[in-house]
Structures are given as C-alpha cells and as structure tokens.
Amino acid sequence: xxxxxxxxxxxxxxxxxxxxxxxxxxxxxxxxxxxxxxxxxxxxxxxxxxxxxxxxxxxxxxxxxxxxxxxxxxxxxxxxxxxxxxxxxxxxxxxxxxxxxxxxxxxxxxxxxxxxxxxxxxxxxxxxxxxxxxxxxxxxxxxxxxxxxxxxxxxxxxxxxxxxxxxxxxxxxxxxxxxxxxxxxxxxxxxxxxxxxxxxxxxxxxxxxxxxxxxxxxxxxxxxxxxxxxxxxxxxxxxxxxxxxxxxxxxxxxxxxxxxxxxxxxxxxxxxxxxxxxxxxxxxxxxxxxxxxxxxxxxxxxxxxxxxxxxxxxxxxxxxxxxxxxxxxxxxxxxxxxxxxxxxxxxxxxxxxxxxxxxxxxxxxxxxxxxxxxxxxxxxxxxxxxxxxxxxxxxxxxxxxxxxxxxxxxxxxxxxxxxxxxxxxxxxxxxxxxxxxxxxxxxxxxxxxxxxxxxxxxxxxxxxxxxxxxxxxxxxxxxxxxxxxxxxxxxxxxxxx
Length: 497
Fold this sequence. Notes:
- It comes from Dankookia rubra.
- The chain crosses the membrane at residues 322-341, 353-375, 387-405, 417-436, 442-462, 474-495.
- With 497 residues, the chain is of the alpha/beta class.
- It has helices spanning 2-18, 64-72, 99-117, 132-141, 178-189, 228-242, 254-272, 289-307, 320-341, 353-378, 386-389, 391-410, 419-437, 439-442, 445-470, 474-491; strands spanning 24-31, 34-41, 49-53, 76-80, 125-130, 147-153, 168-173, 201-202, 211-216.
- It has a 9-stranded mixed β-sheet with strand order 1-2-4-3-5-6-7-9-8, sandwiched between helices.
- Strand 3 (49-53), helix 2 and strand 4 (76-80) form a beta-alpha-beta unit.
- The longest helix has 26 residues, at 353-378.
- It starts with a helix and ends in a 6-residue tail after the last helix.
C-alpha cells in the first residue's frame, strides 16, 4: 500500500509540475558562460521581456514559478545563474567580505543577460529579483530608462528615490524578519503621503512613479517564491506597467513539489527492506539519557566557540568551508564524548564491511539520484557542474566525522528515546550560535537553517529505516555524509581563493 501511494504521489506531483509548461516554448539562451533559459508562449508574438534573478545560494531553477507564470501571461521570461551560483563556472568575486566587488560582478552579469534578452521581445524590459537579487535588480534599474518596471521580493533595501527605479513593486513575506519588512515599508514610503498601506498602489505608471508594498501572507524567505499571492501580484504589476491584461496558470508549485518529494521519500521505506543485513545484533552507542546528554550538549556549545578562534576559509565555496569545519569539529567532539562515556566497555559486534558498503551505496544513490534529480529539475541546482565536483570529497572530510559519530551515538538497543532529533536540534542551535558570534561573516547561514532542517529530517528517516534493515548505523552515516557533501558542493556560491 505504501508503495502504491508513494508512486501515486510521484506521478501526481510530476503531472502538476509539468502542467504550467503546457503551451510554452522553453529554450537555452547563449550569454557567454552564463547559463540562461528563455520561457515564452509557443504561439510566438512580440512581448515585453522580464529578466528574473535568483537569490544567494540559489539558481535559476528556484525562479521557475515566476518564469512559467509570466510566460503563460504572454511575457518573454528569462532566468539565469549568477556568477558563483548554479552551473555558472565564473566565481563570485568579493564574496561576502567585499560587497562592492561582489555587487559589481552581479550587476555586470545581470546587464549582460538583459542585453541578450531584450532583443527577444518588443524592446520593452522589466526585472524581477529575490533576496540578494532584489537589491541587484533595483540597483541595475536605477536611472535606466529601458527598465520600465522592477519587482523586488525580500530585498534588504538599497537606496531608492520616489521615482527611481521606475514602477517598483516591493514584496516581503509576513513571516520574514522585521528588518526586511521595515526595509520594504521604507522604500514605498518615499511615494506615499503617510505610512504605506499594503496592497495599495501609489504614484502613476505613466510617470514611472508607481509604488506598491505587498505583505505576502503565511510565508518566509523561501516560501515567498511559491505563494500564489506572490505570483499574482508580480503578474498584475507587470501587466499594469505595460498596459496588458495577460492571464493564465499561476505556477504555485509548493504542493506539487511536496507530492513529488514526499512520494520519493515514502518510496524509500519499502525499498529499505531490500538492504542487506550488516550486523547480527544492533550496533551503536546505546547510551541512556543520563549518560547521553553530556555527549550531545558539549559539541553544540564548544564548536562555535572553538571555531570563533580558528581560521575556516580554506575552500573556494562561500560558507560551505565554515560548515565543513563545523561538521568536522562537531563530529570530533561527539566522538570524544562518546569514547569517554563508554570507556571500559566492550565494543559491540562488528558489521560486515561488504554489506555496509552495498547498503551505503544504495542509500546514497537513491538520495542523490532519486531525490537529487527531482530537486535539480524543479527546485534548485543539485547536480554539481564539473567545476564543482572536486569539492565533494573535500567537504566529505568534514561531514563524514559528524554523521559517523552522531549515528553511532544515537543508535543502539538502549539508546535514549528521541536522541536522534535532539542531536539535530542541538546542531542547528550551534549554527545559530556561530552566527551570533560572527554575524557579519556568517549571517547567510540563517537562510540555510530551514533547508538544513528539511535535510536532517530526510536523513533521519533514511537513517532509521536503514538501521532497522541492516542493524548497523554505518550505512546511513556514510550515505548521508556523502549526500550532504554533494548538496553543499552543488549549492553554495563558488568564490576565488
């Protein structure tokens, strides 16, 4: 029954995700080394071009909902990967330490895409950006007469005026931090007679002074990309800016993505029964809470304090280098605590190496190719381009110690109840502690914490099912470490070193 329900969820999710592509022509766009994609009605016809830009650690796949929604409404939509992101091989100069250099690289790439995309339409141009790119599209459109309208989601609020950039829509999620909401209100307040009211348009489109604040209900920084309200407001704003009335399907794909990934996750449970048995008796630390809690808490407290004093920038991958070292240190401290708690005790039964290897490869293949291909097609870039692939084994040196120590500490016949979710919650709290200690360098880790939470839930289920089938914590530890290393290598921005 679970298998049938999982396959039905996968099929329904794929059907719903492909539906917005009906009637559209989708093709790559050559902009030098910049990967770009054009979405337009298959029926043809000249229309305004909308260049759509993703945020930090994102890729053009994340912006597909806006591209398909606007193309269904008759626009020509263009997505692309910024330098350092997705499959763009050019590093992001400056990183987070030199905002001027990084902004210059991002602005130059946006300008190149806009120049290549504008001739594809009727000569009229608009821009749409999310998070980091919200600020970039505003800066690029400032005082550029060819930019007839700009849509900014979840931006940090660069300097604007009452009439520049032209016809600016600012949207922010109701669950986003207060400073982002205040930045949005400040921008629109320049054109309003008093405090701006959400969903109220100020100024005039003909004069280029139109301004609007949208508070997207029930979403945070990533969820805003999939909200029907976000898509409808962006489409309506661009229709008004260009004097159009295009309609069509809103690609609010969050539910469809949930069906697809949920089906793939559910399918892993019956498939886990096919894994080979690796140990005759269940392995693991098997510590009760009285002995377990020091092992769990010490790494969470000590790791951010220790790394505050040590250099962590050794990989050409922004924030990924810190997260790699954080995992390695966390794992080493967990292993040391586990050794101390179990000193003098006899080691458990050994697992069969061949069975462990086969099970680990099977789990990793399913996570990376099964879930990974779905993510790469419909959510974000997940398959590392050649210039990123070499990072996987290096990051694995950090993720492997953490998963090995954590899986061993939380498994076993006498293991503390809820030990696994407890250690994952502590790990995420330690990341937030690291941000608090060095907010300027690590602030963007806050954005990935919700994504890490989802990954850890998935890894936890894989680990539980694998342990029940194989009797050993090792297959899931090896597979999950590889999957996280793969994800980090594929998604974190590449920078020069």
